[in-house]
């Protein structure tokens, strides 16, 4: 199940929309490029036990 979430890019501070796959596990971490500035960021996703809600945070990609 995909859910759209709005996050703020840690590099350019623009709001962007990410599609999060709630069925991909309770704890997820992956790299994604900002759709505005193209800089990489690490996305952290935590899915609730019922699989219906999630929390998403982003941080700049480490070198």
Q: What layout of secondary structure does this protein have?
A:
Layout: E1 2-8, E2 15-21, E3 27-33, E4 40-47, E5 54-60
Antiparallel strand pairs: 1-2, 3-4, 4-5
Largest sheet: 3 strands, antiparallel
Estimate the global geometry from the Cα principal axes: elongated
Question: Strand-and-helix sequence, N→C?
Answer: EEEEE
Strand content: over 45%
Structural class: mainly beta
Rg, Cα atoms, Å: 12 Å
Helix content: under 10%
Distance between the termini: 32 Å
Query: Helix count?
Result: 0
Give the number of DSSP strands. 5
- Runs with pLDDT <50, length 5+? none
Strand order of the largest sheet: 3-4-5
Indicate how many domains the architecture comprises: 1
Average residue-wise pLDDT: 92
Task: Describe this entry's structure for a reader.
The protein has strands spanning 2-8, 15-21, 27-33, 40-47, 54-60. The model has no long low-confidence stretch (mean pLDDT 92). The chain has no helices and 5 strands. It has one domain (2-60). With 63 residues, the chain is mainly β. A hairpin with a 6-residue loop joins strand 1 and strand 2.
Short description:
This protein is mainly beta and 63 residues long.
